[in-house]
Amino acid sequence: MSKSQQQKPHRPIEELILEERMRPVPRWRKALIRPELGSICGTILVFLLFATIAGDSGMFSAEGFINWGTVSAQFAIIAVGACLLMIAGEFDLSIGSMIGFAGIVIALLTVQLGWPAWLAILTAFAVAVAIGALNGFLVIRTGLPSFIVTLAFLFILRGLTIFIAISTTGKTIIGGVREASEGDFVASLFGGKVLTGLFSWLAEHDMISTFVAGPRAGQPVVEGIPMLMVWAVVLVVLGHFMLVRTKFGNWIFAAGGDAQAARYVGVPVNRVKILMFMLTAFCATIFATCQVMEFGSAAADRGLLKEFEAIISVVIGGALLTGGYGSVIGAALGALIFGVVQQGLFLLGSKALCSGFSSALFCCSPSFSTPISVAASRENARHERTSDRTRRYRKAFRPGDCPCRCVALGDGRRMPLSAR
Amino acid sequence: MAGECHCLLGDNGAGKSTFIKTMSGVHKPSYGRILVDGKEVSFNDPRDAMAAGIATVYQDLAMIPLMSVTRNFWMGREPERRIGPIKVFDHRRAGAVTVAEMAKMGIQLRSADQAVGTLSGGERQTVAISRSVYFGARVLILDEPTSALGVRQTANVLSTIDAVRKRASAWSSSHIMSAMRWPSATVSLSSITARRWALRSVVRSMPNSFRI
Question: CATH classification of B5-64+120-211 is 3.40.50.300, yes or no?
Fold first, then answer.
């Protein structure tokens, strides 16, 4: 055999380039670019962490699960709306105020006006979604950043909530909703519990703990899965399906990725954005209704800072604050991480905070907060340009800046609020 | 006419972009007529022009980098498939068509769900061009297709234009003479008519009505 035949034949460079390009990407490299990756790792990490340091605190018993599960489900419900809106390229800072507002609307209509609960709930949904649409309409028509427009609605809705509560009942807390909505089907969709049979069966077979004394002795401590969790799961599944598997989902990505490019190819960007504002308001109202039905009361300060928590869950879930990228599943996992950490720290008590755990958490926090701080600094730059009067107005209205749980009224007075 | 390739050349401010935007329906002509198939048309917005088969590919506004090639390709015209009462985005069909259309332009994709951000500038432009052609563009306008590209990528875009020519008429604008000389050489080699307005004064005195 001659030497020239042993040598590999020279191949054209184009062929080599093509081969390089077509070489399949390893599965793990593909997984790295998915938005959910960070939150999946975070979830595993958080569960491992709490299983080792708080395994004996009852966190992973049925009661513990219901405890952090409820908190996570609350975050997840509002995170779904916030996530889809953020992917569509907009923000909603009025989620928290919307929760308080919708709750007060339901309580006023049922307790004060004696409406049936189902009608009150449907009215609250209609009003909230209409306000969401107004938010979106203002953002689209004025061309102002949604950060500013919804910030205005944060204050407007909170002020309106306090005003209608005070002016009709003289209080900021309206109780008696549970009695007023007794036996109502729609109300039970939000405040009821499912799988109660399963849990009493589990209790009978000594698989979960029961009350040992008192009037409910023998009954399971955990009666069933709260509807709040069911809503969270339903919203996450539907939201994920819509985003990834439908035409409309593609429009959401397109609207947030590059609105102008999307418009050029005929995507109705304005309609998509307004619908997402409406969805966010809808999610906030689900949260509010569940909360009102669970507590049997509504308070004007409910939902304080919830918009912040929703956005945190979404960002932990891997979405970009600039829009066009993100995942509903990621946001749901972000909500889970957030809920587990919050309740886990609560169960561990302050001792754990002083231990190395807090430092680990602080190490994680910059990675979560960097994109937020970028947005905040941009917002600051915009803030510099606004007039002095606007700034003073905003300062006077800033809630939560008073240590004694007061709410600032427009005329400079401060009104104390009873604890939530 | 399919197979024609026209270059629009001119200095900065000569009116190339305005001319292109008039053709693609962004601006209305202050006077003069636009004829399509011998009939006079008036476009209110870019979608009217697209419906008439005139598609424009802009340098920077063509693609969304974080979305996959398939999602970009079908953006605004997503194919749907029914599962019971719900309509879902038919990812399989969309992906297959995208890969096939890109292959026709000479670009092999690793997978249809590759993000557009991983493609080079010229390849992105190719996605936009093949998208326009697939959705029935008879006239394809490229606004400064090579101004932000390197030598190799420029060559890629120019060969794409060459591939498109078989299916649609292409108009391309540039203010870089050297970049545009390149295809005109290719064009003349493959004996395709090329009209050039090289001088600013010629662009200014362009006929007010032009046939497509």
Answer: yes
